[in-house]
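Regression report. Comparing outputs from two consecutive submissions.

Submission 1:
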Amino acid sequence: MRLRCAVLDDFQGAAVEAADWGAVADDVEVAFFDRHFDGEDALAEALTGFDIIVTLRERVAFPGTLLARLPRLRLLVASGMRNSVIDYPAAEAHGVTVCGTASSAAPPVELTWALLLALARGIVEESNSLRTGGRWQRTVGADLYGRRLGLLGLGKIGGRVAGIGLAFGMRVSAWSQNLSAERAGEVGVELAASKEELLAQSDFVSVHLALGDRTRGLLGAPELALLKPTAYLVNTSRAAIVDQDALLAALHEGRFAGAGVDVFDLEPLPADHPMRTAPRLLATPHLGYVSRANLATYYGEAVENIRAYLAGSPVRRLP
C-alpha cells in the first residue's frame, strides 16, 4: 500500500507544478489542500490518515498535542531550515522525522521594496483612482533619495534591503540588540545608537528581525509614537514584533504616514479582522516568500526529502 502525503496551504495550486511529484508516485499518494485548516481539531481530523505532511513555512503549528493525534505521521517536511512552531522533542518522541528545505532571501527583500515604493508614491491609491475615473493625480510622492532608511535587523535579508536603499541614494542606519559596528560597516550603513534614535530619525523604517522573546512586542505604542508624522513603517518579518493593537491605533489616529504589512497575528486573515479596513495601510497576504523560484525550491526539495526518507537516509533534518 502506498503512503499518503498531504501538502498544506497550497492556496494558489502552485505546488503541483512546482515539483516533479511523479518521482515518488510509485510509493506515495499526494493530496494537495488549497484551504487552511483552522484549529487543532480540524487539522487532526483532516490529517489523521497521512504518513507524510509538507507544510509551508510557519503557517501551521505542530505542537505535541497535535502530533499525538496523528498516529500515522512519520515524516514532516517544512519549507526553510528554521521553524519555530514545530515541537521537535515531541516529534522525536512520536517517531516523526522532521526535514527542511533551502529558502531564498531574495523574494522577501523584493517584496519589502515593493511595499516601500508603493507607499512612497501612492501607487495603489493612484492606480485605483485612474481605473475608476477618479481625480487625475491625488497624491504627492515621498522622495527616497537623500532620506533616511532605518532597519531593525541587519541579517541576511536586512543587509540586502540596506544595499538597495544605498543604491537609491538613501542614508541607511540599522539597529538590533546584537548588531555590532563591524557588521554595520561591512554593509556600509550607520549603526544607530539606540532603537529610539533610529525610529525618531528615520523617514522609512523596515523590520527584519527574527521573532523571539526579546523581539516580541519590540515596537509598541511608545515606540510608534517616536515615528515622524511623515514616516512609513514596513513589516515583512513577523507580526508579533509590532504590537498589533498599537499599530491599529496609530494608523487610525494618523500618527505617521502609513504602513506596509505582509504579516498578521492570524493567518489567513479573518474576513472581519480590523487590519482589512485600517486606514493608511498597504497590506499583502504574506507574500514575502511566495515566488516561482522559491516555491520550486521548497517543493522540489520536499520531493527529494521524501525520496531520501523512503531510501532510509533522511536529508536536511531539523532542528
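Submission 2:
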Amino acid sequence: MHNTIGAWIARHRFRRDLSRQIELGNYLVNDIGLSLEEALNEIQKPFWRA
C-alpha cells in the first residue's frame, strides 16, 4: 500500500513540475525528451494513472 501511495505522490509531483516547465518555456520540456503534445497529455492524467 505504501508503494502505491508513494507512486501516486511521485506522479502528482512530476506532473505539477511538468506543468510549471511548460509555463516557463517549451525548451525545458524538450530538454527532458518530450514534445509539447506529450507533456500536455501527461499533465492531464489523474495521479492514479501511470
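Expected: both submissions complete independently.
Actual: both completed, but the second showed a warning that disappeared on reload.
Relevant detail on submission 2: The chain has a mean pLDDT of 94.
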